[in-house]
Each structure stands twice: as C-alpha cells, then as structure tokens.
Amino acid sequence: MNKISKVIILDSKPLAEICNPLNYQKTQPLIKFLKDEKIALKIAEITDYELRRELTLRDLHKGISNLNKFAQRKPIIPLCRESLIIATKLWADLRKAAQPTADNKNIDCDVIMVAQALKLQDRYDQIIILTIDVKDLVRFKKFGIEVWDWKQALVDWKYKEVNLYNPLPFK
Amino acid sequence: MLTINKIRTEEHDDRWKAFTDEFHKIKCDKEMENEIYQQILLGIEKIEKIEEILKLDLIQSIPDIQTKLVFELDKTRINVSFEFIEYLLSQENLEPKQKVEEFYLGIDCMSFVLLYYGEALLSLESAETIYLIKRSREYIDIWQHINQSINDSDIIVLHESSLRLIYASLYILEDAYRYIVGSKGLKQNQQRDINFQKEDQIYDSLLADMEKSSQEEWSQEELKAYEQAMSNL
C-alpha cells in the first residue's frame, strides 16, 4: 500500500456531478477507484452550502436528499472560526499578490474551502482538491494544496492513476 | 554572506562560462523571471522544512553511521546553497543582465542541493525512493536539454528549461519531504490503515446510496433545474 495518505476534497461542481443520478455510470467507477486506492474523500461545509443553496432555490428535493445522504456519511469538514480566520489571511494574501480567485465583494467560497482543507494537514500527507477550476485553485499550491482536474479524474481512474494538475507540464 | 567564487567547482566554472557567453544575447522575460524567483522562494521554504525535520529527528534516529554521514554532508550542502540563494535574492540593485546571471547560478545551486539530497535519500534503500529515482531522472533529462540548448544557442528554450528545472526540483524536494515525514510517522501510518477501515465502510455506504439514487426517476423539469443549478456553481 502507498504509505502517503491522501485525501480528496470535492469542489462544488464535482460534488454536484456525483449527486446527479444521471451521472452514476460516469462517477461510480471514480468513487470505487478512490476506495480501492485508500484515498479518503471529504467535502468542506462551505461547498455543501454552495450546492445546497442552488438546489434549495429550485426546490430540488431529490437533489437535496442525495446531498443529505452524502453528508450523512460524515465526509464533511465542519466550518469553524479557525477556518474562517485562515480564510481571511488567504483572501488578503491573494489580493496583495494580485491573484484574487473572486471579486472583492464576493464571499469567495474557494478561499474558505481551501482554509478548511488546510485543517486536514495534520492528518494527511497530501491534500488534493478535485475541481473544474484548476487555474484558480492551483494558486494555493504554495500552501500545500494539490489540484486534480475533474475531467482528468474521469480518465485517470481507468489507468489507476492520479495525475495532478501541473501548470507547466514537463513533456 | 557567500560570494560566487566560494561555491564554484571546475565543472561549475565550465558551465558558468557557457552560460555567460550566451547571456549577452538574452532579453529577459520579466514574467518568467518573477515566476522563477517565486519558485526559488518555495524551494527555500521546503528546504527549511526538511532541515527542521533533519535536525530534530531523522539523523538522531538513523542507526547506520554511513547513512548518517551522508545526511550530515547533505545538510551542509543545503546550508551552503540556502545561503547562496538568500544572497541572490537580496541583490535588488543588479543590472538586468547580471540579475539573469545570478538567478541562473541560483538554479545551478538548487540543482546541486537536489542531486545530493536525492543521493542521500537513495542511500536509505527503500521502496519509496523509487519516486525519487524517477524524479531525479526527469531532472537529469532536463539538465541535458539545457546543455543542448546552450550548444544550439537556443535562448528561448534555455529560459523555459530553467523554469522547468525549478519545477522538477520542487517535485523532488516535495517527494523528499514526504518521504522523511513518512519514515518518521510509520506508526502513524499503521494507525491510518486502521482508520481507513472506517473510511472503507463510508465508501461502501456511499456507493450503495449512489446506486439507489440512480434508480430513482427524475422528471425532465427536475433534470433541467439540476443542470441550471450546476451551471451556477
């Protein structure tokens, strides 16, 4: 077994894809791959909020039910004050470096999700966010967060690989 | 503070000469230059973390004297290069051409650090070092590419290769860091295996839920609304 312990954190779009029953054939093998590779799977509470509000707005009860089932399996990283304080630092750092991930008036869920992910650093050697917004989230690499492209993940499971997003591929 | 001459070797001098001959032609891409600086800073952070672990735990826990010596020697090289990169970064008033020369030398230093560091880790002879061998080979390939670029006077490729070199270096450092943390935390890993049994059960339940949900019938309106919800994420 690989001794490097990994955890995958789902961004909102992959979470929505997994909760979408139409995508079962596409997403089930990926989840099974993560299980076989002993890669933990979690979602940040802020991500649950992001998807849940959209489903609630449209009264999508079946979608909410699927999300509830997912959340009941306890992969949720709770949102706490400590995470929000870390998020404010990340938010400010990115803006000082002129690399914001959202408009200044936006709540910037990405930054909060990353702050929540950082809380897992004591428990896992590698923290990977599974997302479609690779270019935004790769900015957090310097804080120890890796990024896995959702489209890449849907290919990778077939080859039993995790090819993380690299902004400058070698070959 | 170190001077350039202090860390030069004969091999280094030859390479340095080859670089300087070409530097006169370089028009430095500011964005790329900045990127390289940022990556060097990241490298320094990782070296610091590794050093911290080496000082605190790892060397003390290695029973084999020869391996211990390799690590000690490696640590010295890291210190030398670390100081040099620090010197490099402190030079704010250099002419652009000099600056380019300086950071190429910084990259060169990083290369020595990483190769020696990789060697030291390889001496531990464990399965995890396969990662490092692979990374080191990638790294050497890139070096050869750079040398070839010098011969071909292909400055654009040379510049890009340097950035790639830094990325490769960081990956090796990352692997080294994880390996050391891994060695230190074997007992923790065993505990994690036990913990993963719980994770396994979660996955089983999740997969069962997904299968059950996939059999539910959704109306066209519901599916359309779900798509709209997704497009807002």
Please, could you describe this protein's structure?
The complex is a heterodimer of chains A (171) and B (233). Chain A is of the alpha/beta class and 171 residues long. Chain A has eight helices and five strands. A five-stranded parallel beta sheet of chain A has the order 3-2-1-4-5. In chain A, helix 3 packs antiparallel against helix 4. Chain A starts with 5 loop residues before the first strand and ends in a 12-residue tail after the last helix. The relative contact order of chain A is 0.18. The model of chain A has no long low-confidence stretch (mean pLDDT 87). In chain B, helix 2 runs parallel beside helix 4, helix 3 packs antiparallel against helix 4 and helix 4 packs antiparallel against helix 5. Chain B is mainly alpha-helical and 233 residues long. The relative contact order of chain B is 0.11. Chains A and B meet through helix 1, helix 2, helix 3 and helix 4 of A and helix 6, helix 7 and helix 8 of B.
State the shape of chain B.
extended
Q: Give the end-to-end Cα distance of chain B, rounded to a whole number of Å.
A: 51 Å
Distance between the termini of chain A: 28 Å
The pair of chains with the biggest contact is: A-B, 46 and 42 residues
Task: Summarize this structure briefly.
By secondary structure, chain A is of the alpha/beta class. Chain A has helices at 12-19, 24-36, 45-57, 61-72, 81-96, 109-118, 134-137, 150-159, and strands spanning 6-10, 40-44, 76-77, 126-131, 145-149. In chain A, 50% of the residues lie in helices and 13% in strands.
